[in-house]
Design goal:
single chain, alpha+beta, two-stranded parallel sheet, 12% strand
């Protein structure tokens, strides 16, 4: 089942936002928007570079708890 992000937020479900590098920083993708922390993914680099980032591991750890 897929829940729309705004509906998930209203129900108190955790949101994990991953922005592709180069996306315009408007709306929810604006880094100043709180309470969201957005991870940036650069598709031009190997996937391992993204998966091994400390930032990604910390956010996922907090997201699953």
């Amino acid at each position: 089942m897929q829940i729309e992000p705004s509906m998930g937020y209203q129900r108190g479900l955790p949101l994990l936002l991953i922005e592709e590098k180069g996306v315009n920083n408007v709306g929810v993708w604006n880094p100043a928007v709180t309470p969201f922390l957005i991870i940036e993914w650069d598709f031009t680099k190997p996937l391992d570079a993204f998966l091994n980032r400390v930032e990604r591991r910390e956010i996922l750890q907090n997201w699953i708890v």
